[in-house]
Design a protein that fits this description.
This protein is mainly alpha-helical. 52% of the residues lie in helices and 7% in strands. It is built from 15 helices and 9 strands. The protein has helices at 11-27, 29-32, 34-41, 47-50, 54-69, 79-92, 157-167, 225-240, 247-257, 266-282, 286-304, 308-326, 337-352, 362-396, 404-410; strands spanning 94-97, 103-106, 115-116, 122-126, 132-136, 147-148, 199-201, 214-216, 222-223. Helix 11 (286-304) packs antiparallel against helix 12 (308-326), helix 12 packs across helix 14 and helix 13 (337-352) packs antiparallel against helix 14 (362-396).
Length: 411
């Protein structure tokens, strides 16, 4: 195996190494694990499609040149082999997190064989033993194809399609991408300037162009595509100035954006999910967490089924409901919340209990929920016993027929 010269005293060199380390591990697989190298090479690399693209130039200028600088021998590993590995990783790697919360990429060759749809019927869990498990997120019929999503399911349609074209080299024509309303979620729509209806763009199944005009579903008012893009660009620039760790700033900007965006727009959904996380970490605003989860969960379930993201939102909502109840504010909760939460928690817990991102308070919520159920069952039992005793007591009372004197008084 080749010896490399890495400057460990340079922060710049170390930061580059963190990006290049996965590529290096793959390149050395023929020596370290030949069987895994064979499995890796079976995956699509899209080298031909990547030629003369910005992505290939970035890999050449950054990764290839850096690997040469630290001593990777060109006679043993060619530039083309490095580009093949980069293509395999860009096309097949999964984003993941370590137990410490560090973002990373990993290749799971079998999972990478599953095709993509923006309405997936599978969700993936990265376990604490660094293995990936694919779980059905919807009912799947015998013979039905399995799908995951290669891009962000909570992204807008154009953002998803551009990302897939750039990194996976195909134009998505799944049922959701061909539906202007995106399954009635209007996740990509802005509000009409004339009537505040929802603007939609007709999907083109035979074109990769994104220039079609948008029209209002209510008043049919038209808007040029570039104007819709300008609105989203302006919002993106505004969000760069927002403190993402400040719940006050996020709440403020979400109120402003609701004047322009539909209630389920993907930008708002991401802000809401961020707020749920921040409030949960700070253990505050439990009523607001419940409110936000009530907005998020139906949309996520429609797009992703019973996914990992849905499970996290269910746990967040149930945890907040439990906290509200324990604080003595039951009047703030909907009737029947406990009965609804029990099966929802069981499903969510089963899915994410072994995930590397499983909440620290997962067991605590489970115990609290069980205690509340046991207490309610006990209270109901005591009430039934008391009610039965009262009925028996009425039956045991002696019956004395009215006397003639009393009858005469009544008459």
């Amino acid at each position: 195996m080749q010896k490399l010269s890495i400057n460990t005293e340079s922060l710049e060199s170390l930061s580059k190494l963190t990006v290049a380390i996965l590529v290096l591990r793959c390149l050395f697989l023929p020596q370290t694990s030949p069987q895994d190298w064979i499995r890796l090479r079976l995956l699509q690399d899209h080298v031909e499609e990547r030629k003369d693209t910005k992505l290939q130039k970035l890999c050449q200028d950054f990764l290839v040149n850096y690997l040469r600088d630290i001593g990777l021998n060109k006679n043993q590993i060619s530039d083309n082999e490095i580009h093949q590995v980069c293509g395999i990783l860009d096309s097949n790697a999964f984003e993941s997190k370590t137990l410490d919360g560090v973002e990373s990429r990993a290749v799971f060759p079998l999972s990478a064989m599953v095709n993509s749809s923006c309405l997936p019927n599978m969700t993936h869990v990265t376990r604490k033993d660094r293995k990936m498990v694919l779980v059905a997120s919807r009912d799947i019929q015998k013979g039905q194809e399995l799908f995951i999503c290669y891009t962000g399911t909570r992204w807008g349609r154009i953002t998803r399609q551009k990302h897939l074209l750039l990194t996976k080299h195909f134009f998505c024509r799944c049922p959701r991408c061909l539906d202007p309303t995106e399954c009635d979620t209007f996740i990509s729509s802005i509000k009409c300037l004339e009537c505040e209806g929802y603007m939609v763009q007709e999907a083109q199944s035979d074109s990769t162009e994104f220039s079609m005009p948008w029209h209002c579903q209510k008043c049919r008012h038209e808007m040029e595509h570039k104007k819709v893009v300008a609105v989203e660009t302006m919002i993106g620039q505004m969000l760069k100035l927002v403190n993402k760790n400040s719940t006050h700033h996020l709440e403020q900007v979400s109120r402003k954006l609701k004047r322009v965006l539909t209630s389920h727009h993907y930008i708002l959904l991401e802000i809401y999910m961020n707020l749920v996380t921040l409030y949960g970490n700070n253990k505050e605003k439990h009523e607001r967490i419940v409110e936000l989860c009530d907005i998020l969960i139906p949309v996520l379930q429609k797009l992703e089924g019973s996914s990992k993201a849905v499970a996290f939102m269910l746990i967040a909502r149930i945890g907040s409901q439990v906290s509200i109840c324990k604080a003595g504010n039951k009047e703030l909760l909907k009737s029947g919340w406990l009965e609804e939460s029990l099966p929802n928690f069981d499903d969510a817990y089963t899915l994410i209990k072994s995930d590397v991102q499983a909440p620290d308070a997962l067991i605590e919520v489970k115990v609290s929920l069980t205690n509340l159920k046991d207490k309610k069952d006990s209270d109901n039992k005591d009430f039934l016993e008391l009610d039965t005793k009262d009925k028996h007591s009425d039956k045991d009372k002696a019956y004395y027929p009215p006397s003639e004197e009393n009858i005469e008084k009544l008459l």
